[in-house]
Specification:
This protein has about 120 residues and is α+β, with helices and mostly antiparallel strands. It has 1 helix and 6 strands, in the order E-E-E-E-E-E-H. The protein has one helix at about 100-115, and strands at about 1-10, 20-25, 30-35, 40-45, 55-60, 65-70. The chain has a 6-stranded antiparallel sheet, with no helix packed on it. Strand 2 (about 20-25) and strand 3 (about 30-35) form a beta hairpin. It is globular, with a radius of gyration of 17 Å. It starts with a strand and ends with a helix. The relative contact order is 0.19.
């Protein structure tokens, strides 16, 4: 799933500067990845799903993260995701979800059967 978040690396500063980003989490396990608004991999964290709700604040070693909104699973479809830690593994295209593909495939299949 995907969450819209605000994050900052200024954990101890009184007047923090917050940035827009996304928190992408696996449906199983606790691993989540923080991406900037431009799709750059910022940090990897571990958090339980029960804490992934709007308004919840997460503190990591490097960042403060506030969850703003729960988004649909295909919301990052057009966002270029890149990994700054290992540029050779960067992804420059978005992703599509299996459910999205399946519904399109079913529609085409249904249309072909009518012909």
């Amino acid at each position: 799933g995907t969450l819209r978040v605000l994050y900052t690396h200024q954990k101890y500063k009184k007047a923090k500067v917050w940035q827009d980003g996304y928190l992408k989490f696996a449906l199983h396990g606790t691993k989540s990845v923080l991406y900037s608004d431009e799709g750059i991999n910022i940090d990897t964290i571990h958090v339980t799903h029960s804490k992934l709700i709007e308004g919840y604040e997460i503190e990591t070693d490097k960042h403060l993260i506030t969850i703003e909104e729960v988004l649909s699973s295909d919301s990052l479809h057009n966002l270029p995701l890149t990994n700054t830690k290992n540029p050779s593994n960067s992804r420059t295209k978005g992703f599509s979800t299996p459910s999205q593909y399946s519904s399109e495939e079913a529609s085409v299949s249904k249309h072909l059967r009518k012909s």
